[in-house]
Amino acid sequence: MKKECYKVSLVNIATEEKRRVLEELADVKELFAARNWFPGTSGNLSMRVGEMDEEGFHFAITASGKDKTKRTPEDFLIVDQEGRPAETTNLKPSAETLIHCEIYRLTGCGAVFHVHTVFNNLISEYYGDHGAVPLQGIELIKAFNIWEEDAAISVPVLPNYADISAIAKLVPGVLNGQVPGILLRNHGIYAWGRDAFEAKKHLEAFEFLFETVYRSLLLRK
């Protein structure tokens, strides 16, 4: 079967900027793969390339169906604000690219990381009917720049529809400026930040918080 080849052009983004973003994404992918956060080619990573404009922006994202434990020239491609490839390529963007598009458009962030782990799946399913995971009094809430004593936050949980565009339409209704993350029920976490460092910090904090809540629930039994 003939592969589809996208033929479009990316403008006004320096080669050095693209190279920097792709190298940084590759490093993050390698780190998360070592933690087994991409089982079965799951998960996706993206970073914005160039300036942010709600009407027109670009980001690099993991290509669909690739083994994320390997580092190859075909790991990433660059897409526009609609999730369409922005350079000539045979690669397909991740199936969940539209969710990344919405997060960038609504937050203006610099990076979005999405991983599947046992703890974020269990917690999202346990609290799925409530629509959010309540977190309170756990030290790593400070990772989100929330410093109040006994601070409390809620991480939104969205239904995991097969239609990704249906999920993307729900994102605006649940975003919270203080909580840089969204869970898909029995699926995984999306975490974001101003850059790759902050997105990684937020993702690691969420994973610690979910594991803490899970183990706390076990202790109550």
Automatic annotation (TrEMBL):
Tell me yes or no: is Lyase among this UniProt entry's keywords: yes
Domain called Class II aldolase/adducin N-terminal: residue spans: 23-214
Would you say which domain of life the source belongs to? Bacteria
Q: Which cofactor does it need?
A: Zn(2+)
Task: List its EC numbers.
Answer: 4.2.1.109
Record function comment: Catalyzes the dehydration of methylthioribulose-1-phosphate (MTRu-1-P) into 2,3-diketo-5-methylthiopentyl-1-phosphate (DK-MTP-1-P).
- What name does UniProt use for this protein? Methylthioribulose-1-phosphate dehydratase
Q: What is the native source organism of this protein?
A: Paenibacillus zeirhizosphaerae
